[in-house]
Amino acid sequence: MTPQDFDYLRKFLRERSGLVLSVEKQYLAESRLLPVVRRNGMSTLGELVDRLKNRAPAPLSAQVVEAMTTNETFFFRDKIPFDHFRDTIMPALVAARAREKRIRIWCTAASTGQEPYSLAMAIKSIGPAVAGYRIDIVATDLSSDVLERAKAGIYSQFEVQRGLPVQLLVKYFDQVGESWQLAPELRSMVQFRPLNLLNDFSVLGSFDLVFCRNVLIYFDQENKIAVLNRIARQMPEDGFLVLGAAETVIGLTEAFKPLADKRGLYVPNGGTQTRSADNVIRLAAAKA
Predict the structure, then answer these.
(1) CATH no. of 80-287
(2) What is the DSSP string of 105-174?
(3) 107 and 139 in contact (C-beta within 8 Å)?
(4) For residue 23, what are the contacts with CB-CB under 8 A and spacing of at least 6?
(5) N or C: which end of the chain has fewer CB within 10 A?
């Protein structure tokens, strides 16, 4: 791939997916895109770039974007966000939604499904506190391929060993050959939909909790700001946002503010329409 072709590819990926590829990552692009070249009957990466320049068919463009997207994930990844979910977020939302008894959760980069399914298992563990509540989990991802895997809920031995407690494996999975399939009752708790975060997502509706972890790190500042502000517009004043350990809203937007001593956890910062962080913490503590 020539430097000129790589520059075009970087621009293409930023516009289509928000992915910012640094100049030293040409080797990564070449290794991930060569299978796309071969699968589509081409000979070189230069030929692939030429097709992209000449308005490549949508399926080919999608293959290029998906090949470059990182889909690293595992069950209960990083632990702290799930501690926040159990100890702070759900107690506050259960109390705040006592009348309507409905809570909506969005996982913005679901990949092969481990994050939303981890939330589903965490909800099951809460037990009587959420009895009678309708809890919707919407899981989206740019890649249709990984979403199909997520819907099936089938994982390898290696995947179920990454972060999944053995008691939950025994309780919620059935062995299928050398793989493990999540029980239908858990799979039915999650709705999977293809979505590009750079596009309009207002059609998804409002969410009480948004998990947007390890996504913004791949975006430039302009797209980080735009995505965070659009997420804020689809959250109630007492909602929650969870970001990855290497991500923050500070210096990007005033639409959210961090909760003290709750790393990675944020609440909307909409002036009179937003509860104070202290009130959120007190409510969660009272219901824990």
Answers:
(1) 3.40.50.150
(2) EEES--TTSHHHHHHHHHHHHHGGGGTT-EEEEEEEES-HHHHHHHHHTEEEHHHHTSS--HHHHHHHEE
(3) yes
(4) 6, 10
(5) C
From 193, 198, 199, 233, select the one nearest 215 (Cα to Cα).
Answer: 198
Provide the 8-state DSSP code for 268. E
Alpha-carbon distance 93 to 101, whole Å? 9
- For 98: left if phi > 0, alpha if psi spans -120 to 50, otherwise beta; the answer is alpha
Provide the mean pLDDT of the chain: 88
Spatial distance between the Cα atoms of 131 and 172, rounded to a whole number of angstroms:
19
- Extents of the domains making up the chain: 3-68, 80-287
Return the pLDDT at 280. Answer: 52
pTM: 0.82
Q: How much is the pLDDT for 284?
A: 52
Q: What class has domain 3-68?
A: mainly alpha
